[in-house]
Write a structure and sequence with these properties.
single chain, alpha/beta, Rossmann fold, 32% helix, binds adenosine-5'-triphosphate, binds magnesium ion
Length: 262
Amino acid sequence: MLTAPIRQRSGLGRRFESAAAEKPIIVCEDVSKSYQADQPVLRSLSLSIERGEFIFVTGPSGSGKSTFLRLLFRAELPDDGVIRFMGRDIVRLRDDSVPALRRNIGVVFQDFKLVPEWSAFENVAIALEVVGLPSRVIRTRVGETLEKVGLSGRGGTKAKFLSGGEQQRVSVARAIVGEPALLLADEPTGNLDPQLAIDILGLFEDLHSLGTTVLFATHDRSLLDIRDRRVVVLDDGKATDVTHGLPSFDWHEQDSGLRVAV
Ligand SMILES: Nc1ncnc2c1ncn2[C@@H]1O[C@H](COP(=O)(O)OP(=O)(O)OP(=O)(O)O)[C@@H](O)[C@H]1O
Ligand SMILES: [Mg+2]
């Protein structure tokens, strides 16, 4: 597994390492979340993700995929339940420990969230500048990471001049340059055409094969179909694990998304 030694090199996330070795990377127990009193989004959701897994999270539009991901990097707090990251309860984490948690989790969004006027290099480097690494180290690490995502030679190009697929590669580079233990992706292929979507999925798979745990949220059934991976469906506020079982689910399109009948 590459993540531990690399994080030692970078000095990121040590506070999480001691507890991490044998524990699942994520454990959710009876997690509930509502934004409005009578409309629960997640209801007693329980789920465990082992280190080194590649897991798809899917479900109808509005089923809570983005909410679930936001809970994992503490952009939201649940109303109830326990969420453990590498064995530590992140719901009750002190505020001054949240940055350390976030340095262990890279996040990629559908809309890239790049600064258009900045170069690809600058958009990635910012993730290391905020933790105060020396500029020589930043230069090397950003160069290596841009190469890893297939963008060597493009570091000097402003984000606004890159194609959609290239912009998503930059945002993946920014998410992984700190070598996080967990990579969360929220519909990362949602703005891309089908072939680029498969390319970006392939990029996540390459990163997974290098040791990163990947949680990939999508409602794109075609991506789920082309890979034989663990799939968790969010529906009615619960997570249902359908490992190798997706075909036995009765999926059908309705209005804005997929519906799952068990
Ligand atoms: N900040 C918020 N305030 C109020 N309601 C919210 C908020 N965020 C999400 N919701 C509601 O919670 C529900 C779940 O939303 P969420 O974005 O997690 O779903 P999703 O599965 O990611 O959907 P999609 O596939 O469309 O991205 C929706 O009904 C949404 O309207
Ligand atoms: Mg969403």
